[in-house]
Amino acid sequence: MQSALDFISWQEVINHGKFLIFKTIPLLFAASTITFITSHLIEKIRISNFRSKRRGTAVITGGTSGIGLEFSKLFARDKIDLVLVSNDPKEEVELVRKSLVEKFGVKVICESCNLSKNEDRLATFDRILNQLEVKADYLVNNAGFGMVGELQKLEWNQVNDMIQVNSTAVVHVAHAFVNDAINRKSSLKMITTSSLAGVQPNPLFNVYASTKAFTRLFAMASHVELAKYNITSTALLPGATLTNFVKRSKYDTIGKYTSVAKLTPEEVAACGYYHMMNGHSVAVPGLIYKFLHFLMWISPSDIMMNLFYNQNKPSQ
Ligand SMILES: NC(=O)c1ccc[n+]([C@@H]2O[C@H](COP(=O)([O-])OP(=O)(O)OC[C@H]3O[C@@H](n4cnc5c(N)ncnc54)[C@H](OP(=O)(O)O)[C@@H]3O)[C@@H](O)[C@H]2O)c1
């Protein structure tokens, strides 16, 4: 008895294979690119039209500059009162407070706190939660800074402060405000500003990227862990954004920062705000960075590490 294969020559099988490779794969690639771009455009429209109808109070760390300040403006626009925790000079903070109150008519409390210090954090939580009796409905765990360069050439005290602010303080802040929300049997929406730098090992931006990998995992696991308390947690993963961060991390001194695509703090905060309010676990702002995020997931670490090493190396 003859099988179906007997009627198909090997040449035909090879031709079919060629058809699959040269016709179907490019078609699939085109279809996924169109889907990718369309879903980004839909997200963009949703973000720009989004307004929160739920009022309440938002606590924002690093809420007086950069991405944090843009978060503050979005909450204030939607008539949500603010508690801003930062280390900025008093005069600057007062200017920000005044402009938010005048423009949006919300209540704004500013608390000065060096988040790298455990005692400072404890005193600030006590003041906000017990003395001012703030009941947070939203928490933006955003303060942080970076340092570029070889670990051995960085000052230990500064490296330690960076680990404290970017990682320890993030968990400490979440611990304090999540506990309070659970005790009050109240819901809470939380977002943590991590970074795309926390997706792959990042030579010469090593410790910073490692702190951001830590907060990315922390924010995402919290999303599942806290769901039963009606608490959501979103990891915000921005790429390069034009804020004080660039200067403070000394990234501008290596001469290459200007060559990469840059986001504005407004678009980063708007993306984070939308995904936080909708209780999503991850937010990646910007089409190019969404694509980079995808590439980072599928690329071997060895390749990515070499790319980052060259990117972070000072220009000759
Ligand atoms: N810009 C980027 O390219 C980029 C990319 C990915 C992720 N991020 C992350 O985005 C977050 C916000 O940064 P940004 O870009 O908006 O930069 P930014 O304008 O420098 O804002 C950082 C904020 O964190 C505060 N902060 C830093 N150290 C602090 C401390 N010890 N105690 C209290 N507050 C402290 C800063 O206050 P002081 O100025 O008073 O210290 C400032 O308000 C950071 O977590 C950063 O890692 C930034």
UniProtKB/TrEMBL annotation:
Presence of the UniProt keyword Isomerase in the record: no
Segments traversing the membrane: 20-42
UniProt keyword terms in alphabetical order: Membrane, Oxidoreductase, Transmembrane, Transmembrane helix
Record carries keyword Transferase: no
InterPro entries reported in the protein's UniProt record: NAD(P)-bd_dom_sf (IPR036291), SDR_fam (IPR002347)
Gene Ontology molecular function, alphabetical: oxidoreductase activity
Family of this protein: Belongs to the short-chain dehydrogenases/reductases (SDR) family.
Identification of the protein by name: Very-long-chain 3-oxoacyl-CoA reductase
Lineage: Eukaryota, Discoba, Heterolobosea, Tetramitia, Eutetramitia
